[in-house]
Design brief:
Number of strands: 2
Mean pLDDT: 84
Largest sheet: 2 strands, antiparallel
Strand order of the largest sheet: 1-2
Low-confidence stretches: none
Order of helices and strands: HHEE
Number of domains: 1
Strand content: 5-15%
Structural class: alpha+beta
Radius of gyration: 14 Å
Distance between the termini: 33 Å
Number of helices: 2
Length: about 70
């Protein structure tokens, strides 16, 4: 059985995978001039928190390294 933290981690990973697979993200990313070591900062309001946890928006952001 998955722990509460593992369940949340899985939700976040699935949400990020879903985000970067969208046509909108792919089109946007192709237009960027990203180089190795650049970061993509993800607005954390896209993560669906309820009903697992009840929080306000965190001041920290998830980043993907290119």
């Amino acid at each position: 059985m998955m722990s509460h933290i593992e369940e949340i981690e899985k939700m976040i990973i699935n949400a990020v995978k879903g985000l970067i697979a969208t046509e909108a993200f792919c089109n946007w990313f192709r237009r960027q001039r990203a180089t190795d070591g650049d970061y993509v900062v993800i607005n954390n309001s896209f993560i669906y928190r309820k009903p697992l946890i009840k929080t306000s928006k965190n001041s920290q952001y998830l980043c993907l390294e290119g």
